[in-house]
Amino acid sequence: MPQPDETESPSMKAEAYFRKLDADVTAAMKEQGFPATLRWLKKGRIPRSSMMTVEGVVEKLPSGHYDAALQTEEGPLLLRNVQRSDRGSIDPQLIPSNASQSFGATTDSDELTLTADHLLRQLIDAVPNPSSSLICTVELTRFDPSERQALLPLLWQYILDHRNSNNRDELIAVGAAVRKYIAIMPIDRMGELAILLESGHKSPLSIELEIEVAKMIYRNFEAHPPAFADPQPELAQRLWEMVQAYINPRILLRDKHSAATSLAIEAIVSMWSPLAEQAMHAAVACPYHWFAELVSDDLNDLHETWSGKNPDAASWLAELRNNVFAHV
Amino acid sequence: MPSYRLAGSTLSLNIFDVVGKDGKNFGFIAHTGLAETSGLQQAAKIPVLDMGPPLHGQGGSGQVSADVVGSADLNDDEAQKIKTFVDRHANEHLVFQQFSTSQLIQVAPQMYCVHPHASPLYEDDGRYARTRFSCAGFVYEAYKKARIKLLDVNALPMVDEAVLALAYPETRLMESGRIRPDALGLGGSGPWPVLLCGYLIHALNRDADIIRNEPYTPTIAHRYFI
Fold first, then answer.
1. φ, ψ at B206 (rounded to 5°)
2. Which residues, listed in sequence order, are joined to residue A78 by a DSSP beta bridge?
3. B28 vs A contacts (CB less than 8 Å)
4. Per mean pLDDT, which of A12-26, A303-317, B48-62, B104-118 is the most reliable?
5. CA distance A107 to A86
6. What pairs with residue B48 in β-bridges?
7. Which of A4, A172, A223 sits opposite B126 (nearest CB)?
8. Is B61 an interface residue toward A (CB < 8 Å)?
9. Angle at A323 between CA A317 and CA A327, to 5 degrees
10. Are B216 and B206 in contact (CB under 8 A)?
11. What DSSP string describes A3-24?
12. Tell me, what's the pLDDT at A327?
């Protein structure tokens, strides 16, 4: 089967592109002046001509759009998040404007600060209402042990203060705070998470946040198998309440409840809880066979992970799984 | 069911069919995702669940202008497993919607990886809050959750930088230094056994029972589907 030529170097194409861009923008600047050229560029169009000196870079973004930074004789030009046209990928005449940036205007200074101590200071200064973007940035940042000690209560307070929010961005940030908090919290304090899953709070935790809590509990114990059985009985009980509420066939297929329920079952098992057998039986008793298969497969993966970390916990899980999921 | 290259402007899809998009070179499948809904659709704007990046879950506004389609004729049980898989992972990628495009580039290695095709982003002690995927890796793992191993990922062809430049235009960002290749899993000078989108379309280009029973072993030519 003949294959298209792959030998043309991307850098050669880029060089040719910039030579052309250089010439076009140079000419436009000389012919119609900087303000007019800038107006054209902001519309994503570059008038053709053959003069002017421009240097710059064009980068394709993960979104498929482009950022361009051009150094002109009149100063720097930035084009953010512009789209190319399907009619011609390298013809700057055809680059359309993009007035609907998802993320708002960006500037050279919008690089994220991922320095832990700086972010921690920002967070302390912003209490009690840190921005959702700050919380999301915190999730992406690594903190050393002493910084984690300072960070944990700030994240916890944010979670408690905003978990009932109706604002989507804030709920996304609460999810980020939940993941970061659980990923760095001392394992022996995980029982505190039971508060988040209590029923009877003034408004229930959203299903998305329940997924994040259950998932992170599972992941923590996946990485650090319990040294002894039933380390967090209250937390296991709250997860079991979730399972009982959601595994009803009238509920399970709604929205994201199958994700929340399967993760809650797996979290109970990962805690080496006495409720594990009941939870696994609940999966098997569910009329949806695929659900039991899903849980069984995940617990098989957990067993593999545990085998190299805690043989006793792995042995307990193998026996339980063989008993309950024998025919799944 | 045979995979096919689109000829018209509309097509009928099953939920979670695999759609692929050509890159700069005709036939080189550079992006892939899962059809979000079933039914008649416009080929130029198919709603998808995909690792853009960022990852688009249900209702996440992912869209692909599709050039090729592959289908495993999923049954309801398999589709439910895939839906559950997506629901489990989508939330942990929502944070990236808070960032500008420039910032997304900065944090790309925290949401995206090229090799391996899926990889947790670990804290120091082995815990993790997010799984990173490549676009092909996201599709592969979704089907794997439904007990459909589309590919033998231990027997992927080795590919070099020139191939990766076609598969990942973002490699220009690596060249410019804004993303470190090793942060995406491309350590050393290569070649690497990268899971490419075209392999998935070829894997689906078989009978339904074979798709489920025999992971496909692609060759380097299968990065194209023409």
1. -145, 175
2. A69
3. 4
4. A303-317
5. 27
6. B35
7. A223
8. no
9. 115
10. yes
11. -----S-HHHHHHHHHHHHHHH
12. 78
Q: Which helix (H) or strand (E) holds A35?
A: helix A10-42
**Residues whose CB falls within 8 Å of the CB of residue B177, separated by 6 or more in sequence, listed in order:** none
Q: Give the ipTM of the model, two decimals please.
A: 0.94
Cα-based distances in Å from A134 to A128, A156, B54, B161:
13, 15, 18, 36
Q: Place A254 in a pLDDT band, splitting at 50, 70 and 90.
A: very high
Percent of chain B with pLDDT over 70: 96
Tens digits of per-residue pLDDT, B127-151?
999 999 999 999 999 999 999 999 9
Q: How far is it between the farthest Cα atoms of chain A?
A: 82
DSSP line for A108-148: GGG-----HHHHHHHHHHHTT---HHHHHHHHTS---HHHH
> What's the mean pLDDT in A230-247?
97
* pLDDT score of A5 more than 90: no
Question: CB-CB: which of B108, B172, B178 is closest to A10?
Answer: B172
Rounded CA separation B36/B57 (Å):
9
- Beta-carbon contacts below 8 Å between A and B: 166
The residues spanned by each domain of chain B are 4-223
CA dist B179 to A182, B93, B174, Å? 28, 19, 5
DSSP B112: B
Answer yes or no: are the C-beta atoms of A169 and B98 closer than 8 Å: yes
The pLDDT score that the predictor gives to residue B59 is 82
Residue A45 burial (C-beta neighbours within 10 Å; 0-12, 13-18, 19+):
middle
Six-digit token string for B161: 């930088």
Q: Report how far apart the first and last C-alpha atoms of chain A are (Å, whole number).
A: 44
* Residues above pLDDT 70, as percent of chain A: 67
Kindly report the number of other CB atoms within 10 A of residue A49's CB atom: 17
Give me the pLDDT at residue A268, please: 98
Residue pLDDT, tens place only, A268-289: 999 999 999 999 999 999 999 9
- Write out chain B residues lying below 8 Å of A179, CB-based: 92, 129-130
Q: Which amino acid is at A304?
A: E
